[in-house]
Write a structure and sequence with these properties.
Length: about 260
């Protein structure tokens, strides 16, 4: 279903995202996914983002809506938007947000910013943030139809990753500066994929969960930047960052495995 505008670079990113989502899910379930692997994937993802502007699924999502609003034929955009979105949502429903965790370039650069050592501000109101992001999702879908506006471009990541200097680039640099003390502001407030994958993740069969070895020390809850480490949390905003696992003092108290029913 490719159109005349088929761009193989977009396909490279999509194949990378889907393949690595599956491989890393397997490594998580077998207990072999490590912090080192996560950092390696973050670096590769960032390089891919600058080199190929892919896998930029939030951008493809918006482009898909724009093409639909224009009544244009949609080739690659349809492929990478609908197929990519569908596969990644399905994978999220099985294994959680592997894509957001370390395979999305926009998420990866924010994750890199957050590793800069400085005092962190934990924004714990995940319900309010999700509502704001859902409103953005509505605006991103409605914008091209009602006003001919591609809202997401105003946040500057296309120019940033294409190394083009513009007002948008400055906007995204400001977002990255905010991402140094506050975890992933773009993902948690603005991104349409974030809204979709949060819902996709709710039924996730595999997720990080506590076992009977937990001694209720609360360290994981204090370390979690998205307020998803409590025993009853649904993990919709869990980015598989491993901070909870890394601070846990009891071996085996936090595992990635099938949720309890
Ligand atoms: S929430 Fe959006 S920007 Fe963030 S990692 Fe997920 S898809 Fe990428
Ligand atoms: S600290 Fe744990 S629960 Fe919180 S986002 Fe990271 S991996 Fe998920």
């Amino acid at each position: 279903m490719y159109g005349a505008n088929f761009d193989p670079l977009l396909l490279i990113g999509l194949v990378y995202a889907v393949t690595l989502s599956i491989v890393s899910a397997y490594l998580w379930t077998s207990g072999r996914f490590s912090a080192r692997m996560r950092y390696l994937l973050l670096i590769i993802t960032i390089i891919l983002g600058f080199a190929t502007f892919s896998p930029m699924i939030p951008h493809q999502f918006q482009s898909l809506i724009e093409r639909l609003a224009d009544g244009q034929h949609i080739g690659t955009i349809l492929f990478s938007g609908i197929i990519g979105l569908g596969i990644l949502t399905l994978l999220a429903a099985l294994f959680g947000r592997q894509f957001c965790g370390y395979l999305c370039p926009i998420g990866a650069v924010q994750e890199a910013a957050y590793t800069i050592p400085t005092k962190k501000i934990l924004v714990q109101q995940k319900g309010i943030l999700s509502v704001i992001r859902a409103l953005f999702l509505v605006a991103i879908i409605g914008g091209p139809f009602l006003f001919g506006i591609a809202l997401l471009d105003y946040f500057g990541f296309p120019d940033f990753f294409k190394l083009t200097f513009s007002t948008g680039t400055l906007v995204f640099i400001v977002i990255l500066l905010i991402a140094i003390p506050i975890y992933r502001p773009f993902c948690r407030i603005i991104c349409p994929m974030g809204a979709i994958l949060q819902i996709g993740t709710l039924p996730a069969i595999y997720r990080i969960r506590r076992t009977d070895a937990c001694i209720e020390c609360g360290r994981c809850e204090r370390a979690c930047p998205t307020n998803e480490a409590k025993a009853g949390d649904n993990k919709g905003e869990c980015y598989l960052c491993r901070r909870c696992i890394e601070v846990c003092p009891k071996d085996g108290a936090l595992v990635y495995g099938r949720k309890r029913v």
